[in-house]
Amino acid sequence: MRESSVLITGCDTGIGREFAVQYADLGWQVVATFRDMANALPQDKGLRCYPLDVTKPPEFAALKQALGSQPIDILLSNAGIGLDIRKLGDLDYDYVRQMVEVNTMGPLRLVETFVDNVAASRQRRIAAITSRMGSIALNVSGGHYGYRASKAGLNAILHSLAIDLFPRGITVVAIHPGWVDTAGGSGNAAVPVSESVAAMRGLIARLGNHETGQVFDYRGMPLAW
């Protein structure tokens, strides 16, 4: 029987790196991608490392060529940037544009590139790491204009993908990882990265097709849009 496979973006640090390690420890075939290959994990027969800056279409094309028609059970879009701390009147629009390119356009390009690989697999699942800050309904503190917009846009794209890919048997979800102890969450964050990733793996594993298009937190609780 073919081993399960996962492609993960943004494995340089934090959540993506932990996903790669945990899936590899479970015996999965892991395709881990890195913006900087200096951060690559040690490779073995079950874990392969490739360069992928999600703002660079040629790197998507190169990765697609390397993988060919290999089935991908879980396509996991994790690469993202945040730290959107500038205030109204002092906004950095170049950085806002970069957040949209990475957090919103990057996942869409990832899915468009590898959707046939997902459709050829047994599990046929696409998951993207979003943020509670992308929820319009849950926004009670304002600010963070670029980051909120980039994640709200991601959620909207994933919802459309869920509708469009449902006939192919592909389940698409967005997952908020919690306030995780990573560079993006700060050292005071409440959830250890290993705990968050283990919980998200469990959520992805038990998803049903009827849950496609939803936004969940890492514990599996649906979140408002």
Q: Could you characterize what this model shows?
A:
By secondary structure, the chain is an alpha/beta fold. It contains five helices and seven strands; from the N terminus they run E-H-E-E-H-E-H-E-H-E-H-E. It has helices spanning 14-25, 57-67, 93-119, 145-165, 193-206; strands at 5-8, 29-34, 47-51, 74-77, 125-129, 171-176, 215-217. A seven-stranded parallel β-sheet has the order 3-2-1-4-5-6-7, with helices on both faces. The longest helix has 27 residues, at 93-119. It starts with a strand and ends in an 8-residue tail after the last strand. The model has no long low-confidence stretch (mean pLDDT 94).
- Name of the top-level CATH class: Alpha Beta
Give the radius of gyration: 16 Å
How would you describe the shape?
globular
Let me know the largest β-sheet.
7 strands, parallel
SSE sequence, one letter per element? EHEEHEHEHEHE
Strand content: 5-15%
Low-confidence runs (pLDDT<50, min 5 residues)?
Answer: none
Helix segment tally: 5
Mean pLDDT: 94
List the strand order in the largest sheet. 3-2-1-4-5-6-7
Distance between the termini: 39 Å
Specify the structural class: alpha/beta
- Just name the CATH architecture: 3-Layer(aba) Sandwich
Overall strand count: 7
Classify the helix fraction into a percent range.
25-40%
* Annotated CATH homologous superfamily: NAD(P)-binding Rossmann-like Domain
CATH fold naming: Rossmann fold
> How many individual domains?
1
